[in-house]
Amino acid sequence: MNLLITICARGGSKGIPGKNIKQVGGHPLIYYTIKAAKAYIERHGGELVLSTDSEKIREVARGCGLDTEYVRPDYLANDTCGKPDAIKDALLWSEKCYGKRYDMVLDLDVTSPIRTLDDIEQCVKIMEENPEALTIFSVNPCARNPYFNMVQMNDEGYYNVVLGGKYTTRQSAPKVYDMNASIYVYRRSIFEQEHPRAVTDKSLIFVMNHVCFDLDEPSDYDYLSYLVDTKRIIL
User: Fold this and answer.
1) Whole-model pTM above 0.85?
2) Using CB atoms within 10 A as the burial measure, which of 68, 82, 169, 195 is most buried?
3) Angstrom distance (rounded) from CA 178 to CA 216
């Protein structure tokens, strides 16, 4: 199987400025995802490409052992561009560069680094064992459930349960999960669509048995730094 691993890290983060290369545990954040990708390639093979519009991120990644010639176009580096569109461009560039057609794309998110090599291997294995599946992504069990204890405002200005509220106990409500943004595996055919998406009508999930979250707000970064500095987790 031909596998391409993508690491996407654009330079325009607003929630946590410079978060892709912000220091965590003595290393820039991107270091941990590069490390995970290289560990997978060492065991299973594949190619790795960095998708970024930032020369600073490219420079830091180079210092972490990942040097790539690919440059993400500006139109794929704004707040309105979906990540799968950026992955598609990196995929097509890589296929031309390496002269091969990839069967799958494994995307590892820089801002959700609490993953293990076993997590990655299991995601790829599940996709290999389910040829009809188009994507798989990592999730965690969630604390709130839109069928039971999440509310939204209705047209009259009052609040009710998001998805109807017909369930009276948390245990009886359909099981839902939080996407933690850490691992995505895409089958090559998904990128033949004009605007590919991670969640399709043939998507699978991989439930992580450990804490994992992505960094959206400064408090997320503080929490990750605390977990790493106190050795609650080892990245």
Assistant:
1) yes
2) 68
3) 14
